Amino acid sequence: MKPTPQPTAGLCDLAGAGPGDMGLVTLKVKEIVSTAEVLVYDYLCNPEILGWAPAGAEIIYAGKKAGQHTLRQEEIDALLVEKTAAGKRVVRLKGGDPFLFGRGGEEAVALAEAGLAFEIVPGVTSALAAPAYAGIPVTHREHTSQLTIFTGHEDPTKEESSLDYQRLATQPGTKVMLMGVERLGKITSQLLAHGAPAEMPVALVRWGTTGQQRTLRGCLGDIAEKVAQTGFAAPAVAVFGDVVELRDTLNWFETRPLFGKRIVVTRTRKQAGGLSAALRKLGADVLELPTIRIDPPTNRLEFGQLVQDAHSYDWLVFTSPNGVDAFFEMFFKIYSDIREIGGVRFAAIGPATSARLASYHLKVDLQPEEFVAEGILEAFEKECSVENLRFLLVRAEAARDVLPKELTRRGAIVDEALAYKTVPETEDLTGAAARFRKEGADLVTFTSSSTAENFMALNLPLPAGLKTASIGPITSKTVRDLGLAVDIEAKQYDIPGLLAAIREHYLPAKS
Are 460 and 433 in contact (CB under 8 A)? Predict the structure, then answer.
């Protein structure tokens, strides 16, 4: 009789992390990862998902590659049982779907036999997603209405294969093979020996749905030889059947403007998402390598006192979205009503900062055309005399002193509310630094001087041909001072401007 799960016991979610594209991770997975106490993840999981885990969560890598097992399956089963039995909220994160050749069924059985509570969270399988991103529909009314999915990597302890090659070779429809690239020669030989036509179209899709995706075309008779010649390696999905020929018409993902370019994003982990998503939409293989993080200011008491007195100023000047967030986080610890800010006017450097103020339903009274401190000085000259007006500058520690000096020189009364500080990022949860060392990159982006300085402080080997992209002239000066050339500089000094400059660099306008 199966034991009844105890109500006081922990819970283990066996969850599918999808095929690699972060956009294909389900909302359910994001929800459970954000509350996990223990997170056990596999090699094929996109490591950026780890960023959703709460601070203090125990993160355990249990990845398995061909010939390289961090933990044996029996050890993984025992680990899940141990952590769940200890009353923990455990998330077992598996690439693709946990029940499709993911051994999730075995892990569920281990939990059930231990009388522990578990839930299954299905995921988008690479068996469908990888062909789709390669422009190959696995079914099509004019080609086939039948699909067979099989694994090319069976239990190595079995004496005989459980695959019915006779049926695989002769039954109609598309066949999709997960894993088994290293055994492709044996598998194709068996299919040919059992009557499959040598001219059957075949496609292999490596790292499907990600910026690393590569597709190799051939036929059943020559695909194994092409794999050997090109060094094409796992992880890959193999598609057998006439639908492969539709790729010539439907190849949508690998034709994007930045496909094949590996681009490094050095913004903070919290801020990287927007830039990364935009680059991925253009087809880039994005490597998130945060070099800085935002920490509270050194003197929080002084900052709080200035925020408390914000209503006594004529102007509040915000130089970044981070400053806006830090200011209002402190403000609402002191006050419960936004009207306590009084009749102060707002100035903001850049549209992103203005948008962040707008999210608090506050209108920006002044925004310069040029998104730097010098630009806001010019804007004030056109707007009004600053003499004898009281300014509170909400900004980062160690920021340039151009703005307070120039406002003071022109007769303004200036206080600085140091809202936050940027410090070097010391964690590399996703393994991006190791990947950069191994694979290099085509382009590294810098959105501030501090991102450039801290990137160079990592002392990573810079590959030949590495280019740089800077958000504006202040950052560009820092990049050059660090000994790097600036290959791309945004004309508009914000993220949309940086994206436009990168796209223009790789796809110059047609004459």
Answer: yes
The CATH architecture that domain 262-291+425-506 belongs to is 3-Layer(aba) Sandwich (3.40)
**The domain made up of 295-422 is a member of CATH 3.40.50.10090:** yes
Domain 11-123: CATH superfamily is Tetrapyrrole methylase, N-terminal domain (3.40.1010.10)
For residue 302, give the 3-state DSSP assignment: helix
Q: For the chain, which residues score pLDDT lower than 70?
A: 1-9, 64-69, 154-161, 269-273, 371-373, 508-511
**Model confidence over 400-438: pLDDT tens digits?**
788 889 899 889 999 999 999 888 877 777 788 888 999
Q: If phi over 0 gives left and psi between -120 and 50 gives alpha, with beta otherwise, what is residue 101? A: left
Write out the DSSP string of 8-34: TS-EEEEEE-BSS-GGGS-HHHHHHHT
Sheet of 147-151, strands arranged across = 147-151, 174-178, 236-240, 201-206, 214-219
Sequential DSSP letters for 481-500: HTT----EE-SSSSHHHHHH
d(CA 444, CA 157): 46
How far is 321 from 353, CA to CA, in rounded Å? 5
Which active-site residues does the annotation give?
A: 42, 64, 179
> Do residues 383 and 309 lie in contact, with contact meaning Cβ atoms separated by under 8 Å?
no
- Residues 254/259/262/266 CA torsion (nearest 10 deg): -120
Domain covering 128-250 in this structure, CATH number: 3.30.950.10
Residue pointed to by tokens 């004898």: 388
Q: Which pLDDT tens digit goes with each residue over 335-377?
A: 999 999 999 999 998 888 999 999 999 999 988 877 666 777 8
Q: Cα separation of 310 and 329, whole Å?
A: 14
Cα torsion through 367, 370, 376, 377, rounded to 10? -150
Distance of alpha carbon 33 from alpha carbon 37, whole angstroms? 9
Q: Identify the bridge partners of residue 285 per DSSP, sorted by sequence position.
A: 262
User: Is-contact 93 33, C-beta < 8 A?
Assistant: yes
In angstroms, rounded to a whole number, what is the distance separating the alpha carbons of residues 426 and 474?
Answer: 25
Residue that the structure tokens 């075995």 belong to: 106
Nearest to 196 by CA among 225, 162, 220: 220
8-state DSSP, 4: P
**Distance between CA 232 and CA 509 in Å, rounded?**
34
Query: Could you tell me how many residues make up the chain?
Result: 511
pLDDT tens for 76-118 read 999 999 999 999 999 999 999 999 998 999 999 999 999 999 9
For residue 332, give the 3-state DSSP assignment: helix
CA distance 470 to 448: 8
What is the reported pTM?
0.80
CB distance 76 to 104 below 8 Å: no
CA 80 remoteness from chain centre:
27
Element (H, E) at 131: helix 126-133
